[in-house]
Amino acid sequence: MAHMIAKNSIHTLTITALNDQAQGLGMLDGIPIIVEQALPGERIEVKIIKVTPIYLVGKLCSVLAPAQDRTQPFCQVFTRCGGCRLQHLSYPAQLDFKTDLARAQVSQVKELQTVRIHTTIGMDSPFHYRNKALYPVGLRQDKIVMGFYATHSHEIIEHPVCGIQDARIDRVMAHIRQFLECSRISIYDETQHSGLLRHVLVRIGMRSGEIMVVLVINGRDLPDKDRFISSLTHTMPEIKSLSLNCNQEKTNVILGIENRVIFGKYTIRDELGEFQFDISPSSFYQINPRQTEMLYRKAVEYAALSGKETVVDLYCGIGTISCFLACQAQQVYGIEAVESAVHDARNNAALNALKNIEFLQGEAEERLRELADRDVRPEVVVVDPPRKGCEQSVLDAIIAMQPQRMVYVSCAPKTLVRDLGYLARNGMQPLEIQPIDLFPHTTHVECVTRIERKDR
């Protein structure tokens, strides 16, 4: 009966819940409706912008009776930028939302009903936490635009400042924009696959203060290169690394394979806890170092190490978690598919004088079999997979090793509970989940899970 409600018609309704994308949910004449930026308990006026046989989509026109948890967004482009979806929700309520996300996913798997889910650990000050930003660059009416993409779009939304990233990134981008406006550097057009500058990547070492800038270009070199280097580094002497990333493919993949240093070092250095890490342009390095340290310490706590254990760290990246584990384990084996990440991981272990870590490059399942063939029998396995979670073959290889404990670090509750359910059905029992807010004002949440073998 959805067709009985006309597109562009105006209606009043009450929002009853949020979905996992923080969209408001309600009912209109018995038909489910989705409304962006509306909160539970609010009485709102909406304009119908999409009609389907089974649901409606409404655009928020006005809030007639606001929820107690509604707050004023701190960003002027909040309603347009695709970066943050929860700025209109008070921070304590954001943490509740993320705890509920984890609980809702766990409740759908019968083997996980006894798992304890802790409340989400938040930040004292949930602002300016990001150490990395990636800006698309484009042209609009012959004017340079730099910003973030709108939701489900390649429209670039400009903003002079971003309240969730380190303020030094705003300064770098302001200077680059100023330079581009009077330079010979052409701007990439993704429809024509022409022009040079595609993206700008900025990384900050939050403790070291070192800054890395990477220009992603549709070419091999940069006009006005020397003047660009001189101008940027004179304005911001904290910049220790300037690189060109060459990406001449017609693709939505942002970074190309080749990085060419044009000033300073290939890496910048930062610290997590008592450890130092060198970070390269393509390194995966968590974007919120304050919460990352808490995340890693929770993972070590759940590993329950006495100093005698052998630990396998799957999807180890540049070796961050491995270093935290190595201080309390006898031996750590880190496994990572990306060759450049393994190179960085080995360097980071040496940088921290950790001699009880061995890094193996290759697919997780294959390297686990190799360790088994070497008669390596880990007491603890730690996994930190990408959003898609672990392949079943990887879980089977872990189960075959019969570790006493597992720690599962996840950025995607849906794939986390899928994998936890499989482990629970195969002798590995999840016991507790600790959500940690690494991404305030967004819908993302990181979870750390403690798992033990059932026959212990």
UniProtKB/TrEMBL annotation:
- Source domain of life is Bacteria
Residues annotated as catalytic: C411
Listed Pfam families: TRAM (PF01938), tRNA_U5-meth_tr (PF05958)
Gene Ontology biological-process entries: rRNA base methylation
Residues forming the TRAM domain are: 2-62
List residues binding S-adenosyl-L-methionine: Q286, Y315, E336, D384
Question: Which ranges form a coiled coil?
Answer: none
Classification via Gene3D superfamilies: 2.40.50.1070, Nucleic acid-binding proteins, Vaccinia Virus protein VP39
Molecular-function annotations in GO: rRNA (uridine-C5-)-methyltransferase activity
Indicate whether Methyltransferase appears among the record's keywords. yes
The yes or no answer to whether the keyword Membrane is present is: no
Keyword terms: Methyltransferase, S-adenosyl-L-methionine, Transferase
Q: Family per UniProt?
A: Belongs to the class I-like SAM-binding methyltransferase superfamily. RNA M5U methyltransferase family.
This protein is called: 23S rRNA m(5)U-1939 methyltransferase
Taxonomic lineage is: Bacteria, Candidatus Moduliflexota, Candidatus Vecturitrichia, Candidatus Vecturitrichales, Candidatus Vecturitrichaceae
